[in-house]
Each structure stands twice: as C-alpha cells, then as structure tokens.
Amino acid sequence: MISKVVCIGWNYKRHIAELNSELPTEPTVFFKPPSCIISDGDNIVIPEGVTNVQHEVELALVIGKRCRNISESQAMDYVSHLAVFNDVTARDMQHAARDAGNTWCLAKGMDTFGPLSEYVSADGIDVNNLDLELYVNGELKQKGNTRDMIFTPSFIVSYVSKYMTLEEGDVIATGTPEGISEIRKGDVVRAVIKGVGELINPVL
Ligand code: MG
Predict the structure, then answer these.
(1) Can you tell me whether residue 109 is helix, strand or coil?
(2) What is the pLDDT of residues 141-160, one digit of tens each?
(3) DSSP conformation class of 143
C-alpha cells in the first residue's frame, strides 16, 4: 500500500532553465496524494476548465522497508523496486499557486495525475545511469538520463528520511528532465525508462 508519494521538484538543470527557476541548494520536496495514482493503460482525465496540463517523466523509487534517518550509503538498501512515473501537472495552476505563496497540492494532486508503471526489482540496476524518454502521440518530447540529476536517488532517500519515516510501499519520484509540454484530450502519452518499464496513458 502506498501511504505517500514524495516528489522532488527541480532536479535537472535544463528543466530548471526551461521553467526560469533558480538552481536549488536543497531538494524541493512535495507530496502527491496516493489517490492520484493510475496504472499503465488508464486514462489521464483533465477536469473541465483546467488549462496547460503537462507531462513529466520521472524515475520512481519504491521503499521496501520502513526507515528513518538513514545515511546516503545505506539508502539504496531500502529501495526495493523501481518504476516509471508521470508527474502530471496543471502548469498554469502551479505557477499561480507559487506566485500567491500557496502549495502545489491541487495542480499536481488531481485524480489520475499520477500514472505509475508496474514495478521492477531494483536489484542490479544502476539508478544513476538510466535513460528516460517521453513521447506524445509517438513524438519524442523528453529525453534525459538520471546521471544529470542535481540530487541523486541515494541523496534524496537519505535527505527525506531525516525528516519523515518512509514506509514500505512509499513512492519517491525523483524529478523530470527538460522537454515538458502540454497534453490535450485525445493525446496518447508514453513514458519509458529503459530497463525499468513503460507507461502508456491516453488523455481524456
Ligand atoms: Mg515533477
């Protein structure tokens, strides 16, 4: 069971540049509610009146056993599985919230805004060298590699665990590379991480 989905924002330099944001000195951490999670093949549903919804392909880390305050060198021992995640975001609402000093809960937490692939065992996979790709209607939009993260998976797990208990089954999404773009009704979004999995979701 997923008790929480912890997400990292602004973790790839070229994505930060495309959003005109500043380089972070510490990870930007936020939650998506577990109720936003859908599976491979499910529809991403954009509510009436919500504009400029965008895709964000991300590597997801799945916590295998409860942990708190673990070191960076121990961190990957607590990650049992990996998955492909799409941090679907209502960008206009997110920016309006940021400008008003509010949180991103609604912009990123709507039902169906968290497509999550089948899990694959993390054993033997180098999380620091994985190719991420995202296609809309077959057209390549995002292409990146986890080696370009500002904060590595090990650092992120250790950092978050300093402040909150991570439960078995919790998901940590590690940020998206550049190339975000709008998705609209009728589009088909395909996110791929080679060696981890694939996620195909139509937009309704
Ligand atoms: Mg994201």
Answers:
(1) helix
(2) 999 999 999 999 999 999 99
(3) E
